[in-house]
Structures are given as structure tokens and as C-alpha cells.
Amino acid sequence: MKGTLFLIVGPSGSGKSSVLMELKKSHPEYTYPLSATTRPMRPGEKEGDIYHFYSHDEFKQHVERGDFLEYAVVHQDHYYGLIKQPVIEALQRGEIVVREVDIQGFESIRNAISKEDLVTIFITAPNQEELIERIRGRAPIDDDELKKRLVSMRAELSKARECDYLVENKNGALADTVARVVKIIQETRS
């Protein structure tokens, strides 16, 4: 392939979604593939803006045909998956493709895309305490939910060594974090 898939990976609270949103604003020339989901459309959403909306049966048919690079069931209810064809076509055209994924998605995609076509960037906070504060700051959560997230966070952090790059996202320094990610993309592609 002529293009490169850049995966933005990291634990909950690392800021990977914020990094991706800023990348979209500053680099609209990159390709940002859409996911499919079975969750209901929210007010103001349209088909094809952020997601492709499938019924559970449609989603399962796509899974059976192997149409996803990765997919997962979230909150034991709704399916989310990255549709394979647009990613492969963009890579064949030589494009820079950027996608945010969780650890499960990271592992699936690196088994589906060759190492020469894939660059993984792990986004993290300066320390675990800051990640915990960011998680708590999003919405109130009880102690049991926090314990589950801490177990997940530690498992996710253990995967940082498997990524090509590690980028620390300090509080109040999102622009610097995005600049480091852009530099990685540009240096990799040159």
C-alpha cells in the first residue's frame, strides 16, 4: 500500500479523542474513517456524519462477511466497528489515515494491517493519578465503576510499550500534544 494508517491509542482519560478532534480541524487533508454502530442516532446526528447506523442484524451480517477491521460490543448493548473497505481504499490511494481506537481495536487492527502500513501512537497522561482525576472529572462514578476502570487502565497502560510512539498529553497542553502527533505523522511520511 502507498498510504499509512496512524492509530491513536491510549487509556480512558488520556485525551485521545481531543487529539483526534484537533487533528481534524488542523489537518482536514487526512482521512478519518467512520465507524458503524448499532446505538440509536442522537438528536442532531445524521447518517454518515460521525457514524454509519446499522441495525443489530445488519451489523452481524457485516461481521460474518468480514467487513470490519475491528469491532466490539460496548456496554453489553451496542456494537461499534471500523469498516474495512474505506480504510483499505484510502491506503491504496496513498493517503494518511488517522483513527482513534481502544486497546482491543489496536490489537485487532495490527493483526489485519501490515506493519509497513501502520504506525501506532500511544497517548497518555503524566501519571496514573492524573488519568484517574480526568476519569472522575468527566462524570460522577461510583467506587465499583472506578475499580473496573482502574483495572482496564492498567491493562491499557501495559500496552504502551507495544506502540511505535509514546506521547504524553499534559493538562493544558493539548496544542503541544497535537503538534507532536503531527510531527510523527509528517516525519513518518517523508
What attributes does this structure have?
190 residues; alpha/beta; Rossmann fold; four-stranded parallel sheet; four-stranded mixed sheet
Q: Would you give an account of this structure?
A:
By secondary structure, the chain is α/β, with parallel strands linked by helices. The chain has a single domain (4-189), classed as 3-Layer(aba) Sandwich (Rossmann fold). The chain has 7 helices and 8 strands, in the order E-H-E-E-H-E-E-H-E-H-E-H-H-E-H. Helix 1 packs across helix 7. The chain is globular and about 40 Å long. It starts with a strand and ends with a helix. The mean pLDDT is 89.
Spatial gap, N to C terminus: 15 Å
How many H/I helical runs? Answer: 7
User: CATH superfamily membership, which one?
Assistant: P-loop containing nucleotide triphosphate hydrolases
Q: Sketch the topology as an H/E string, one letter per element.
A: EHEEHEEHEHEHHEH
Measured by DSSP, the beta-strand proportion falls in: 15-25%
Radius of gyration: 17 Å
Structural class: alpha/beta
Strand order of the largest sheet: 6-1-7-8
Helix content percent band? 40-55%
Q: What is the fold-level CATH name, i.e. the topology? A: Rossmann fold
Strand tally, please? 8
| CATH class descriptor | Alpha Beta
Largest sheet: 4 strands, parallel
Which ranges are low-confidence, i.e. pLDDT below 50, for 5 or more consecutive residues?
none
CATH 2nd-level architecture: 3-Layer(aba) Sandwich
Number of domains: 1
**Overall outline:** globular
